[in-house]
Amino acid sequence: MFKAEILGETLKDGVEALTIIVDEARVHLGKEGVYARNADPSYVAMVQFELSAKAFENYETDEEVVTLDLKKMQDILELASRTDVIKIALDENRLALSFGDLKYTIALLSPYSIKKEPKVPKVEPAAHVVITGKEFRWAVKAAGKVSDNIALGCTNTDFFMEALGDSDSMRLELSKDQLIDVSRTDGKSEEVKSLFSLEFLLEMSKAVGKASEVAIDIGKNIPLKVGFDFADGNGRVSYLLAPRIGQE
Amino acid sequence: MFKAEILGETLKDGVEALTIIVDEARVHLGKEGVYARNADPSYVAMVQFELSAKAFENYETDEEVVTLDLKKMQDILELASRTDVIKIALDENRLALSFGDLKYTIALLSPYSIKKEPKVPKVEPAAHVVITGKEFRWAVKAAGKVSDNIALGCTNTDFFMEALGDSDSMRLELSKDQLIDVSRTDGKSEEVKSLFSLEFLLEMSKAVGKASEVAIDIGKNIPLKVGFDFADGNGRVSYLLAPRIGQE
Amino acid sequence: MFKAEILGETLKDGVEALTIIVDEARVHLGKEGVYARNADPSYVAMVQFELSAKAFENYETDEEVVTLDLKKMQDILELASRTDVIKIALDENRLALSFGDLKYTIALLSPYSIKKEPKVPKVEPAAHVVITGKEFRWAVKAAGKVSDNIALGCTNTDFFMEALGDSDSMRLELSKDQLIDVSRTDGKSEEVKSLFSLEFLLEMSKAVGKASEVAIDIGKNIPLKVGFDFADGNGRVSYLLAPRIGQE
């Protein structure tokens, strides 16, 4: 059993954050709220998703686990406005979504149709940076002009993005006073950086771009972690992205 | 001989209403006004079109019948503003369109290049519904999320659209107080519905969507009739759409 | 050595004007300013470009000649706002572009990768017309509805564009009072016209469309010259377009 009511805005943003990484997701409908952990088919990127029961107008559950067709949900939710209250209900193997005069019933997917839940790798980042979502999105776009790979790095006081193409290069540098926060968590001060796929960063920046604050954890050739709140602080999304090898 | 002047708005809307069903149309330029009846190449849909001579700024004719390349006219009319007065004249086998500093001359098509005028089937609908064009357009879009077929139906007091996909379904229900009008013309009260192709309904909703009032006549497995006024009530467009078989 | 600072607006407009004709351009960085003369690969169209050193915020040069990848520059300049001051510097075989927190370095092209500078043909036009860029753009678009060729012509007092398709035609006529200026430079009064490729005129109209005044020199079966100022009168772009043969 699962019955809930949720603001269009929250459901739209939540579904979008997941679709950045996966088209179909295993989602836990727990007593405390909804949570999910899904890896993209190539296991290069992962999303961790939490949405507290407090984010819902109403929330009743028997601890269900469902496999959702996120792309179909997103397509249907295009018709809902951000201020609509959307009713969600589990009904055997179907999910009912109702808003306005409309009622949709969509099939749940087989739990065997998608990959197992990935393990979250243990990472000890060297630096922690906080910037606006808008700045993050802009920087990723700027890097994409010259290369398919972007390095994200940090000195003691500066955060930077670098892209090296075959013949061209780009560097964006943001110093302490242009950032919401920057700190070294490893107690060191020499430059650290890791190289990532532009493709995934571009996808992530779609969801990240709306957040007022984005937390970025970086180190030397380790996975990148990009996290942000949504649903007025009642939801949290974290993306993990494996580094590429090949640049020092 | 045919010479007329007409507001850009009226000519644009009229041509668009016809292009929903056909790219080329046989059009009568009669003493009372312009009228046309054309079926789409598959004979699934038909348009009936009337535009009174009153809708024109000037109107002189010798009862001509012409075959028009509507797509070319629509392309040219993109350059005219809705407030332009457009001069139309027949000149041998050509149609002249003038507005602003521009003069276009386009060839008439051979009357043998298109299908004969279709007969209008006699239909006795079971219910008559009036809704806004905007609501009609929105409902068709909503149904398209899950299926290529839409059922339109009526009970005694409610109008509904239903779409049944392979695994998903959608239902939109509008009750008496959400409709401009709903009435049973067969004196009965049990539910009636017919199934239609989404593709044609989507096309129709482009022209229908602008109308303030849309009249819908429906019954049990009979053609759908969708009618609306334009040109301040001096024009009328009716679409007839054959039902699909396969759903009870 | 070349070091300069320039307003985003000026650099964007200048690069765009060149890309109408070529993707890669040989550009002279002279003491008095920047100039270039490049033909399209088919030698049907040519651009002459001048931008005075006065148009720059700062300008220092050792008389360099560079071959630029204009498409890449245009792509990067999308990120600059029109009010940004952009720093440009030559650094060995690379061009550095800096604005905001961003620094791009792009490779210069080999001078052997593009065609030689074209000679400017001597042309004695029969008429000189001045219209707004907006009107020029609109007229070219209107002609494109019926044909891939447009004739531009002039009588004693009128400027006209004509398009003759296989079955359709278009004529746009602008008389003396609708033009900024019209005069016969050959002292004659009979109609002259030349036929041109729509494709090139459409491309040109993108850059021309922003100019408040566009000077057009036309004659009988001779190249068309279309010129306009930019950068507050400190820059000038002229396009030359060879006529097509086949229409009297």
Summarize the structure in words.
The structure is a homotrimer of 248-residue chains. Chain A contains four helices and 18 strands. Chains in contact: A-B, A-C, B-C. The interface between A and B is medium-sized, with 11 and 14 residues.
Keyword list:
nine-stranded antiparallel sheet, 18 strands, alpha+beta, five-stranded antiparallel sheet, elongated, 248 residues, homotrimer, 4 helices
Oligomerization status of the protein chains: homotrimer
Q: In percent terms, what proportion of residues of chain A is strand?
A: 35-45%
The count of helical stretches of chain A stands at 4
* Low-pLDDT ranges of chain A: none
In the sheet with the most strands of chain A, the strands line up as 6-2-3-4-18-17-16-10-14
**N- and C-termini, Cα separation of chain A:** 52 Å
Order of helices and strands of chain A: EHEEEEEHEEEEHEEEEEHEEE
Based on CA inertia axes, which overall geometry of chain A fits? elongated
Main sheet attributes: strand count, strand direction, barrel closure of chain A: 9 strands, antiparallel
Please tell me how large the radius of gyration of chain A is.
Answer: 19 Å
Most extensive chain-chain interface: A-B, 11 and 14 residues
Q: How many runs of DSSP E, i.e. beta strands of chain A?
A: 18
Helicity level of chain A:
10-25%
- Sheet/helix structural class of chain A: alpha+beta
Mean of pLDDT of chain A: 94
